[in-house]
Amino acid sequence: MTRNVPTDHAFVCESCDNRWYYTRERCPECRSTTADAYRLQQGEVVTATTVHATPPGVRSPNRIGMVRFEHDVTIVAQLGDDSAAGDTVQFGAVEVLRDGDRSVSGARLVGLE
Predict the structure, then answer these.
(1) What 3-state DSSP class applies to 72?
(2) Measured on CA atoms in the order 56, 84, 107, 95, is the torsion positive or negative?
(3) pLDDT digits over 50-84, tens only?
(4) pLDDT tens digits for 28-48?
(5) pTM score above 0.85
(6) Whether residue 57 sits in one domain with residue 31
(7) Does residue 80 lie within any of the structural domains?
(8) What is the 3-state secondary structure (H, E, C) of 38-62?
(9) Do 65 and 96 reside in the same domain of the chain?
(10) What is the gyration radius of the CA atoms in the chain, in angstroms?
(11) Which SUPFAM superfamilies does this UniProt record tie to the protein (predicted)?
(12) d(CA 36, CA 55)
């Protein structure tokens, strides 16, 4: 099941209809190896916080939050600077989320205006 899937996609198990976000070899519920990817649309920020003590290469302050999408798919991700609980967000453009030796790129969740 390992594949190169865009960061704005989640997975649904073809056997049991379980849904999850992070790429896995097997369904966490039934252990099936057959799943389809689908695009996450808009999500609601459940909780958010600002981290001031960040690892090297990570912006400071760093706004992160827990966001719930359709079918109860919930992720923790970097947020736009002003997103708060109750806000509706979607995946933004892919950016460098961490610089340096362990450079990581991904989409930041941004609020809808």
Answers:
(1) helix
(2) negative
(3) 999 988 888 889 899 999 999 999 999 989 878 99
(4) 999 999 999 999 999 999 999
(5) no
(6) no
(7) yes
(8) EECCCEEEEEEEEECCCCCCCCCCE
(9) yes
(10) 15
(11) Nucleic acid-binding proteins
(12) 34
